[in-house]
Write a structure and sequence with these properties.
single chain; two-stranded antiparallel sheet; 12 strands; 42% helix; 13 helices; globular
Length: 412
C-alpha cells in the first residue's frame, strides 16, 4: 500500500492573528513561516519513506486557509530538497485551466524530476474563484445548480481529452463544444515558419498550403505513456466509469465501510469491463484522516484541534460533512455539529477518522487495507493531513513518524 500525504496548506496563525493581520494570506512574513514549516515537514516525510505529497488547487483564499494556487511551482522547490518522494497536484482543476498549459507543466516537471510526479484532476466546486477565472457563472460543479454542473462536466471532459492527447501524441487536432485545436479548426494561416515546421515538425502539423492543421505540446513526458493519473470520486458512477476507461486511480471519498467496499467492487468491475486486469482494491485510493496519541483520548484531542476545527469552521460549510450524515441530522441543510469535538467524533463514527494509539490505528488500517473483510488489497492510502497549519511542525513530524514506524510497515 502506498501512502500520500495531502494538506490544504494553511498559514499557521491564531484566530486573533487572523483578525489582526487580515488578510493574512497576503502577509509575506506569515507566508514565509508556512513555507519553512512545510519544507521541514516534507523533507521529513521523504526521509520516512512516504510515497507522495499533494496539495489541492485553490485560488483567491485571502483568509489563509487554503494556500495553493500553483502546486507545480511549489513542488519545483520541494522536489529539489528531497530524494524520492513524488509530488501530486491533487487536484488540478481542469475547467479553470488551459489544458495545453496543464500538459506542458506535467511534462516539464516529469523531465526535471523523472518519475516524481503524479497527477490528480478535479472539476472544481468553489464558485468564488471558478467563476472569476472562467469568466462565467456556469463554472463550478454543483449538487444544487444542474446547469452549472453540466457545463462544468462538459468542459472538464474536453480539457482532460486534450491533456491526454497532448501528453501522448506528437501532434493532434481536437474538436469539442468548448475547445478547438487548432483555432479556428479550419487551420491557422499566416504561420511564417511553415517551411521549417513542415520539414522538422510532426507529420501533418502544416498542410501543403502552409496552414497549421495540428499542434504538438513540448516536451513529451519522460514517463511513458504519461505519469500515473488520479481522479477523486464521491460515488458518481459516471465519474468512476470514465476513470476506469482511462485506467486512472480512483480516490474514493466514501468512508463508511459497507459503502466503501461496494464502490471498490463496482470500480473493479468497471476497470475489467474497460479491458484492464484488476483485483479488488487495485487502482483505488482511500481518503482518510489519522490522529495518533499515547491514548485514545490524546488522539481525539489532536483530531479535534486539526480536522475537527477545519471541518467545523470551514469545509463543512461547503457540504463536506454530508458524506458523514446520520439519520438524526436535520434534513434540508448541510450537516453542522456543535463544535470541533463533536465534528471529530462524527468523522470517527463515519469511518473517516482513524484514531487512537499506534496499535489501534494499525488495526483500523488493516481493516481498510483488506477492503473491510472482502479479501482485497488497497492500492493507495491518502492521509488528509490537517495537522499542517493547526499544530506546530514538531507535532506534525511526530504524527508522521509514529505512522511510518508503528503502522505502515505491516502494509508494505
Amino acid at each position: 500500500m502506498k501512502v500520500n500525504i495531502h494538506t490544504a496548506l494553511k498559514v499557521p496563525a491564531t484566530n486573533e492573528e487572523r483578525v489582526r493581520l487580515r488578510p493574512i494570506a497576503r502577509n509575506t512574513e506569515k507566508y514565509q513561516q508556512m513555507l519553512r514549516e512545510l519544507e521541514e515537514m516534507v523533507v521529513f516525510a521523504d526521509e520516512l519513506g512516504y510515497d507522495s505529497f499533494s496539495v489541492p488547487e485553490h485560488h483567491l483564499h485571502n483568509e489563509g486557509l487554503v494556500m495553493s494556487p500553483n502546486s507545480m511551482l511549489l513542488y519545483s522547490k520541494l522536489a529539489a530538497m528531497t530524494k524520492q518522494i513524488a509530488f501530486m497536484p491533487h487536484s488540478m482543476v481542469l475547467p479553470a485551466r488551459n489544458p495545453i498549459h496543464v500538459a506542458e507543466d506535467i511534462a516539464i516537471f516529469d523531465n526535471l524530476y523523472p518519475g516524481r510526479v503524479k497527477i490528480g484532476f478535479a472539476r472544481g466546486y468553489q464558485k468564488r474563484w471558478m467563476q472569476t477565472l472562467m469568466q462565467t457563472e456556469l463554472a463550478a460543479s454543483s449538487v444544487t445548480d444542474r446547469e452549472s454542473d453540466v457545463a462544468n462536466r462538459e468542459i472538464f471532459n474536453e480539457h482532460l481529452d486534450i491533456v491526454m492527447k497532448a501528453l501522448t501524441e506528437d501532434a493532434f487536432r481536437y474538436e469539442g463544444k468548448h475547445f478547438r485545436i487548432p483555432y479556428p479548426l479550419e487551420g491557422i494561416g499566416g504561420w511564417a515558419g511553415h517551411e521549417i515546421t513542415r520539414a522538422w515538425g510532426a507529420e501533418g502539423e502544416v498542410d501543403e498550403d502552409g496552414v497549421v492543421q495540428k499542434v504538438g505540446v513540448i516536451p513529451a513526458p519522460l514517463t511513458k505513456p504519461h505519469p500515473e493519473m488520479f481522479i477523486p470520486v464521491s460515488g458518481s458512477p459516471a465519474t468512476m466509469i470514465e476513470a476506469a476507461r482511462r485506467g486512472f486511480t480512483a480516490v474514493m471519498l466514501e468512508s463508511k465501510p459497507e459503502k466503501f467496499a461496494e464502490l471498490c467492487r463496482n470500480y473493479q468491475r468497471y476497470i475489467q469491463e474497460a479491458g484492464h486486469e484488476a483485483g479488488l482494491g487495485d487502482k483505488v485510493g482511500a481518503v482518510r484522516l489519522v490522529a495518533l496519541g499515547n491514548s485514545f483520548e490524546e488522539a481525539m484531542e489532536h483530531a479535534a484541534n486539526t480536522a475537527g476545527w477545519d471541518f467545523w469552521n470551514y469545509f463543512g460549510k461547503f457540504g463536506f460533512m454530508e458524506p458523514f450524515r446520520m439519520e438524526s441530522d436535520p434534513p434540508g441543510q448541510f450537516v453542522q455539529l456543535k463544535d470541533k469535538y463533536a465534528t471529530a467524533q462524527r468523522l470517527l463514527d463515519a469511518g473517516h477518522l482513524l484514531a487512537g494509539t499506534p496499535d489501534d490505528v494499525r488495526r483500523q488500517v488493516e481493516d481498510l487495507h483488506g477492503i473491510h473483510g472482502n479479501d482485497g488489497e488497497l492500492d493507495w492510502f491518502s492521509w488528509t493531513f490537517y495537522a499542517q497549519g493547526n499544530v506546530g511542525v514538531d507535532e506534525q513530524k511526530r504524527q508522521l513518524e509514529l505512522f511510518a514506524d508503528k503502522v505502515l510497515p505491516d502494509f508494505r
